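Notes from the 1:1 (GR / supervisor)

We went over the backlog. Supervisor wanted to see one worked example end to end before approving the batch request, so GR pasted a single chain during the call. The sequence is below; no edits were made to it. Supervisor asked that the structure be written out right there so they could see what the output format looks like.
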Amino acid sequence: MPLPEPFQTKHPLRFRKDGGYRILMMSDAHHKPAQGARTVRAMETLIDATKPDLVLLNGDNVAGFTCKEMFEQQLAELVSPMEKRRIPWAHVFGNHDQTPEVSKKEQEAVYESYPWCVSKAGPEELPGSGNYFLPILNEKDEPVFGVWGIDSQQDFKTQTVPLDYPGDLYWDVLMPSPIVSYSDYDFIRFEQVMWYWNTSVELERLCGRKIPSLMMFHIPLIEFHAILRNAGRTGLRGEYNERVSASDINSGIFAAAFQRGDVKAMFAGHDHINTFDGVYGGIHMGFDGSIGYDAYGTRDNDPGHNRERLRGGRLFDIRLSDPWDIRTDMVFVSDYE
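Structure output shown during the call:
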């Protein structure tokens, strides 16, 4: 039975005939004219080498624009690798996407105007823009896997929906000794967590079972620290090169997903030179490094002495025979040049 309209996508997303489905996530393009062409070439290199069925842009996508016309031009360049190849793609926003010049709501409409974009703005009543679920179907049009897109907001200075809080967030929340990150990032709001929970329950009711899924958001969660602090138990892989820049306010999205049991992978961008991942509480969590050459690269004291060596994306491979088993690895542009 086909899912109701809110769950349908512009292009049906289906497992291949060989029973596989491949997703390529690319984060922090920070696309702007200075290094824009190099970033687009890097995206094309990864796409042509890995041949994904779906591309995900995980925030901080376009930067440096000063008007809507400039934003539209830069977005056209950024999404051209997918549009030219007729590959479905989706996005979420990062902390640098919200600007005074062009709101996320205005940007979202431009994103969705592209023929191969399958992103959705999501319910109007939710904070942010781009809260959605994308079903991956079998040959009978039954959802077997899914992708959750969540807007992880920006920071306390640029809140999409200002908190109804009379005090000083910097003084009252961050304080001299923050819980995790010494950062002022906003958090996934309760309305979004409640929407995920209710939508997950509705999907289970419609399908008669839970749908294993991947959840993407730009800013990492507090729980990502569990991977680092328990490397042996969580199977830590990849590199930890900078402090995890999570919000100091725990959104509860991990607890909700942990309790529901359908989200089996949660991945963020944001920290450009962190590429680590591991499994905590049965959920595979970690980072996708940066693809954009206008985003900061590795430090001057990096052992590789190559500021661009971590430019890349993250692959997710799902099999129709066991969609609960999500296999993921970083892929780097330098591996294919």
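Supervisor's comment: The radius of gyration is 19 Å.
Batch request approved.
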